[in-house]
Amino acid sequence: MEQSHIWVGVFGPNSPKDYFDEIYDEDNEDAPVSKFAGDQGERWIDHDWMEMSFLNNPIDILELAGNHSYSNYYDVLVSNACKEVSLDKANVFIIIDKDEVKSPKTLKKDDFELHYLGTFNCDV
User: Fold this and answer.
1) To which H or E segment does residue 1 belong?
2) Which residue, 31, 50, 88, 124, could crosslink 96 as a Cys pair with Cβ 3.0–4.6 Å?
3) Which spans in 1-124 are helix H?
4) pTM score, two decimals?
5) Residue 72, Cα to own-chain centre: how many angstroms?
6) Is residue 61 pLDDT above 90, yes or no?
């Protein structure tokens, strides 16, 4: 059984559309590979171990989680975790291998919220 970190969030119309994009800065090799990686305290995240949804409008958490690999292992647990943070709809879902982010964080900024829900079991 593998474990993965999961974040769920709401990005508004003014949120950065390139937040998860990989950007390689040849002049600054120490720059984080993405804004998401930088905000998580990482310089590098292997996006091959990351699966994400970024929708225009928020939808039900179970539906959003259900669009991802191995969701039958974690979808209800994720939905319950979202209820604990008063989140019933979201438009961003991220699942990434637990070894890719050492100290995952919840982020609340002016134009988006991204809730770190924890580590969940996934059968790969």
Assistant:
1) none
2) 50
3) 35-39, 61-66, 75-84
4) 0.93
5) 18
6) yes
